[in-house]
Amino acid sequence: MSQEKTTALHTRQQTPVFIVLHDAAFRVLWGVGGLSEVARWMEQLVLSLLIWHLTHAPLPLALVLVFNNLPRPLCAPLAGWLADRCPRRQILVGAQILSTGTALAVLGLLMAERLQPWQIFLAVALQGVVKALEDPARRTAILDLVGAERLVNAMSLDVVTNTLGKMLGPLIGGVMIEHIGFPAAYAWVLALHILTLGLTTRVQIPPVQRDRTAGDPLWQGLVMAVRYARQHAMLMGLLYVTLVMNALAFPARQFIPAIGSDLLGVGAGLVGLLAAAESVGQLVSAGLIACTQRLQYHGRLFLGGSFLVLLTGMLFVWSPWYALAFALLALGGCGQAGFSTMQSTITMLATPPAMRGRMMGLVSVCIGVSTPLGTLAMGLMATTYTIPYAIALSALGGLILLLPAALLTPLLWQRLMSPALRSA
Question: What is this structure's pTM?
Fold first, then answer.
């Protein structure tokens, strides 16, 4: 082997991304996350477009996301508690069995032409249970596999695969609906769930770290996470921004089927492409973050990304051109990459190992409380006024509410380093 090739190989092996990917257990867990996201986002687009075609009203369309997130406040504390005391592989497998069974029932009703809106709401609620159970277990398992020093790189790679799923799922779903119809498109959703279940059974995760609090009652674990967060301004700022973004920014995505179909006048294929636009920018930015080394000011990326998501969200709904709406959504995706990557990274780096599952559960509670309320409010405003006004007013309110986080919390100025960096 030439000197140049040897040097290139050595450089690649020392790159943080390749060091993380060298772990076979992480690669399997990474693949599970990516494949499940393709299925989840494809399913959400198919069912959202189906609701829009059945009702042609903004409130039922909003209720798809509302019911999908309603289980989070109830399930997230349990999920975080389980992630700290139960084998995480069993949690992931059990959640995927529930997801696959739900998709099978929906497909049966759809093929029999007996699927009703209330059944769609029930199905997305069950998929919300799956997401609430899966997230704390999978993300804390990532830290167990790669360690704190490589956590930013691993979480960035996780965001990359999540973003690919968020991009490919709606795109594939929209094209399939346009060419083969709703039942056949949803049959592919079921096939993806089955494939994900098979891959999940191959996941290998280290034993859970336990301490004397591992046997505490469920409610006491959640209270402990809340008390710990209240004593740390960084975590309080993160939870506050999470509430704002999930109430006033992210619900806007649920209305893309209506915006594409009615306001921009495009078919299901281009609606799916528009729903994937945000993921294009998110994928590029997450890839860049994955290659960073010794990032210290995590809060700046977290807060800056939040501002960018809200600003572009306020603008894209007024675009008379499809291409401009796509570009603005893609730009907003760049901000969401910073938000998503740093949300999990800050949570775990600022939390003791034995409490990370419960703290991730608390973050999920915040998401589960704010998303249904914000989506429902946006849907009611869209019913009373118009969808563009509802989204723009929500985004403007979000921008205003982020100012206290920038001024009164240490997100912008406090360094948050891994243990390895602190000792360097």
Answer: 0.78
